[in-house]
Specification:
24% helix; six-stranded mixed β-sheet; P-loop_NTPase; alpha/beta; single chain; ATP binding
C-alpha cells in the first residue's frame, strides 16, 4: 500500500449457503478439501447467485459480496450507502475481522475499532468499567493508555452512575452510548460505525456525529460510516461508496455518490395506482404533478409553478385530513400543508409558486390521517421531482448552491 492508503480491499467476495453454517454438509466440506489438496479451485466458488432478495433464486449459494475493490486514504470519512441487502453490513463485518472473506484480501494499517450492532464486543456479565478495559486490551492498548482515556469515555457516555453495573442490566440506549464512547475514544487508526446509532436519542446522535467529525478532521483518523440517514452521511463524510446487490457500484466524492444513489432510488419509486378498497375509511384516488401548460411532469424550471391535482374519497372517517409534504433529497421535511376532508369525494388543486426552491431534487409525500395520527392511506414512496436551473439570475436575490429556499432578501443601496 502507498503511504497515504490505510485500507486496501482487493477482489473481496463473501459466499454463504442459505440456511447453513459453512457449506452445510460433510460431503461439501470434503469436496472443498480435496480440491485444495490437488491445488484446484474451490468447486463451490463457481456457483451461486447475486444477493438480490427481490427475485426467487435457484441456487443454495449466495454471494453476499462479489469482487469488491476500493482503497481508502488516512483521514477520510467514508459513507457506505445502499438499499437494505446491498452488502453494507457484510462488508463492515469483513473489515472488522468478525468474519473472513471467501476470496480476496483486505490490507490495513493500524488498529480497527468497530461498532456494528448493540451487543457486539461487550461481555454481558462484566461491568461497564471492566468492558472498557477489555475493549482497550483487545485493541492492543496498555492499561496506562486506557486510564488516560477512561474519564473522557465515561463522561461522553453519560452512564457514570452505572459504570460498575454489569452491562446486561443496561437498556439498549445505555449500551450503545457506552459502546460508541469506547470505540470513538480508544486510540484506533480506523473507526467503523454501522447503523447502530439509530438506537440512541436525537441529542446523542448529534453528539456522536460531532465526535466522529472530530476523530476524522481533528485527529486525522479514518471513519467508515453506514447509515440510511443521508443527511448525516452528507454532514460527516467527504467520500462515499455505493453498494448494490453485493457489488460496489461506485466510489467518489460524497455528493456524487449520494446523487447517484438518490437517482437510482427515484427510478424505483412506485407508480401511483388506485385500487378501490371499501374497507379503508379514506383513500387517495388520484394524484398528478402538472406544469404550467397542464401536462404531467416531474421536471420544472426554477421559475415555473408546480401544480398538484388530487382526489380523495372519505368513507365514514371522522376528522380526516390530507397532509402534503415536500422533502429534500435526504428525506428532510421542508414543509407540510394540511387540509381537512369531508365525507364523499374531495377534489383539490394546489399550487407551489416558482422561485421558491433552489434547483435540486425533491420528493412530494401524501398521506391521509387524523389529528390523532391514525393513518388511513399514504402514497408509500412519494413522487420525485426536479427543479432545473435555467440560468436566469435576475430571478434570484441569492445563489443557487446554498440552502434550500431562494433567498427572500432584497438589497438596496443606502
Amino acid at each position: 500500500m502507498s503511504k497515504n492508503i490505510i485500507l486496501d480491499v482487493e477482489n473481496v467476495s463473501k459466499q454463504y449457503r442459505l440456511g447453513m453454517v459453512g457449506t452445510g454438509t460433510l460431503s461439501h466440506d470434503l469436496n472443498r478439501w480435496w480440491a485444495i489438496v490437488r491445488g484446484k479451485e474451490d468447486p463451490y466458488l463457481k456457483i451461486g447467485e447475486t444477493n438480490d432478495r427481490t427475485k426467487k433464486g435457484f441456487s443454495d449459494y449466495v454471494w453476499a459480496l462479489k469482487d469488491v475493490n476500493f482503497q481508502i486514504e488516512q483521514g477520510d470519512a467514508v459513507g457506505i450507502i445502499g438499499r437494505n441487502g446491498a452488502g453494507k453490513s457484510t462488508l463492515l463485518k469483513l473489515l472488522s475481522r468478525v468474519t473472513k472473506p471467501t476470496t480476496g484480501s483486505i490490507k490495513y494499517k493500524g488498529r480497527i475499532a468497530s461498532l456494528l450492532e448493540v451487543g457486539t464486543g461487550f461481555h454481558p456479565e462484566m461491568t461497564g468499567r471492566e468492558n472498557i478495559y477489555l475493549n482497550g486490551a483487545i485493541l492492543g492498548m496498555t492499561k496506562k493508555e486506557i486510564n488516560r482515556k477512561f474519564d473522557e469515555i465515561v463522561d461522553f457516555s453519560g452512564v457514570e452512575r452505572y459504570i460498575d453495573t454489569p452491562v446486561k442490566r443496561y437498556s439498549s440506549g445505555m449500551y450503545v452510548r457506552l459502546a460508541f464512547a469506547v470505540a470513538a475514544h480508544l486510540e484506533s487508526e480506523i473507526l467503523i460505525v454501522d447503523e447502530v446509532l439509530a438506537v440512541g436519542d436525537a441529542e446523542f446522535q448529534r453528539k456522536c456525529l460531532g465526535k466522529m467529525n472530530d476523530v476524522s478532521k481533528g485527529d486525522g483518523r479514518t471513519v467508515l460510516f453506514v447509515s440510511h440517514n443521508l443527511a448525516s452521511v452528507k454532514q460527516l463524510c467527504n467520500t462515499g461508496i455505493l453498494m448494490g446487490n453485493g457489488t460496489m457500484k461506485m466510489q467518489g466524492p460524497i455528493h456524487e455518490v449520494l446523487g447517484a444513489y438518490i437517482s437510482s432510488e427515484s427510478k424505483e419509486k412506485e407508480k401511483f395506482r388506485y385500487i378501490e378498497d371499501i374497507n379503508k375509511k379514506a383513500q387517495i384516488k388520484s394524484f398528478h404533478l402538472k406544469n404550467s401548460t397542464g401536462n404531467d411532469s416531474f421536471e420544472f424550471a426554477d421559475s415555473d409553478c408546480l401544480h398538484i391535482e388530487m382526489d380523495i374519497v372519505v368513507r365514514g372517517a371522522l376528522s380526516a385530513r390530507v397532509n402534503l409534504a415536500v422533502l429534500d433529497r435526504y428525506d428532510n421535511v421542508l414543509f407540510v400543508s394540511r387540509k381537512p376532508l369531508y365525507q364523499g369525494d374531495n377534489n383539490f388543486k394546489v399550487k407551489l409558486d416558482g422561485d421558491v426552491l433552489i434547483p435540486d431534487d425533491y420528493v412530494i409525500s401524501v398521506a391521509v390521517d387524523t389529528p390523532a395520527v391514525e393513518l388511513y392511506d399514504v402514497i408509500p414512496k412519494g413522487f420525485s421531482f426536479k427543479i432545473i436551473d435555467t440560468g436566469n439570475e435576475s430571478l434570484l436575490y441569492g445563489d443557487k448552491e446554498n440552502g434550500i429556499f431562494i433567498s427572500p432578501f432584497k438589497w438596496e443601496n443606502s
